[in-house]
Amino acid sequence: MRLPEPRGPVSATLITLLRADTEPAPMPGFGDGDPLVDDDLQLTLTICYELHYGGFDEVDDAWEWHPGVLAVRAEAERRFERAVRDLVGSPAPVPAAEIPAALTALTAETDGPSLSRYVQRHATLDQFREFVVHKSLYQLKEADPHTFAIPRLTGRAKAALVEIQIDEYGSGRLDRMHSELFRTTMRHLGLDAAYGAYLDRLPATSLAINNLISMFALHRRLRGALAGQLAAFEMTSSLPNSRYGNGLRRLGGDAEATLFYDEHVAADAVHEQIAAHDLCGGLVAAEPHLSSDVLFGAAAAEALGGRVGRRMLADWEHGASSLRPGSPDLPVTDGAVLVGVAG
User: Fold this and answer.
1) Is 257:327 a contact under the CB 8 Å cutoff?
2) Cβ–Cβ contacts within 10 Å for residue 62, how many?
3) In terms of domain of life, where is this protein from (predicted)?
4) Contacts of 122 (CB under 8 A, 6+ apart)
5) Which among 125, 245, 243 has a CA at the least distance from the CA of 191?
6) Which of 151, 171, 172, 170 is nearest to 161 (CA)?
7) pTM over 0.85
8) Which of 54, 88, 226, 263 has the fewest other C-beta atoms within 10 Å?
9) Which pLDDT tens digit goes with each residue over 242-261?
10) What is the DSSP letter of 329?
């Protein structure tokens, strides 16, 4: 992945340092705006976190643990975590046996606008492409953040997470990895399936939900929140993915194009039970003090994910793109519904 274009003084300074491979200079401060929609802060966090995944083509791997970069990340995380906690509060802890019910209540569908229903029934091909681009930064590394938690768990919770991850990684088959299935969907839509290709087009709200998961993943103290986030993701996946798949079929997508969504309808119906009962329930049974953290992680994921969906729907309602202006451009609908994928 290439380094993105800066979105403010902190991300600009960080990008310059990483590209020039020089010692960090004094960093400017973040602004006083809402960290959840601050493009400069969210892009800075994204850059810092990506150093722990695949990195950037023009950045030396030694920057991953550089004290100067970690200091910038820590300040951004402090602001970000505080804003998330202000948004969702601190859920009251419950006993391990009540964790699945509490997660079900947190993730119940509301009567508000539904992104998945809109995509199923009304989205144009251009809007579906935008939807996929919003999801791409996460889906192209779908299982990777949660893998960080495996050595931080024990017993029943660890076994449950490994069981989920085995499916996410296609049981060892490259072509069945969920990230590869998503890449195939992108190609059918005429999109660039390279990881991070559309980073410059993603607004702060979409970066924030990805950064939330990485923040939970990279801090042992937040392992409970990461488990709760994964449970919320799995528990709200089957029905929306059924709708997304049907929406893509409505637009002309064939079985290969929709396989990513169809796979999640079946897999996540099982994963939600494992995540709620064995992962989160097992974790709280072993470490009762993490109960509130598990519920916080689920609530935070729901809140930030909801903001992404509402932002997309609002933009589309006004006839606008939900992506930031810039490059690369998305394909223009020209009569052909979907492109074929050779090989």
Assistant:
1) no
2) 9
3) Bacteria
4) none
5) 125
6) 151
7) yes
8) 54
9) 999 999 999 999 999 999 99
10) P
CA distance 251 to 248: 5
pLDDT band at residue 76 under the 50/70/90 scheme? very high
Q: Tell me how many helices (H) and strands (E) the chain has.
A: 15, 0
**From CA 139, how far away is CA 133, in angstroms rounded?**
10
Residue with tokens 């064939």: 254
Q: Residue 26: what pLDDT?
A: 78
In terms of residues, how long is the chain?
343
Looking up tokens 């919320």 gives 232
237 neighbors 276 (Cβ within 8 angstroms)? no
Distance CA 5, CA 136 (A): 18
In the predicted model, is pLDDT for residue 336 greater than 60?
Answer: no
CA angle 299, 300, 301 (to 5 degrees): 90
Identity of the residue numbered 73: R
Cα angle vertex 274, ends 273, 276, to 5°?
65
Residue showing tokens 């200079």: 25
Q: Two tokens at 216? A: 């939970």
CB 304 within 8 A of CB 84: yes
User: What is each CA distance from 227 to 97, 164, 219, 221, 238, in whole angstroms?
Assistant: 16, 12, 12, 12, 18
Q: Retrieve residue 143's tokens.
A: 């299982």
How far apart, in whole angstroms, are the C-alpha atoms of residue 30 and residue 71? 13
Q: What confidence tens digit (pLDDT) does each residue in 280-332 have? A: 999 999 999 999 999 999 999 999 999 999 999 999 999 999 999 999 999 87
Average of per-residue pLDDT across 101-124: 90
Q: How many CA atoms lie less than 13 Å away from 205 in the CB half-sphere?
A: 16
According to DSSP, residue 152 is labeled G
The region that residue 124 occupies, defined by phi over 0 for left and psi between -120 and 50 for alpha, beta otherwise, is: beta
**DSSP, res 183:** H
Q: Note whether 312 and 134 are within 8 A (CB).
A: yes
Domain boundaries of the chain, sorted by first residue? 9-88, 96-317
- Report CA torsion sign: 119, 124, 128, 133: negative
The distance in angstroms from the start CA to the end CA of the chain is 24
Tokens for 261, please give them.
């969504």
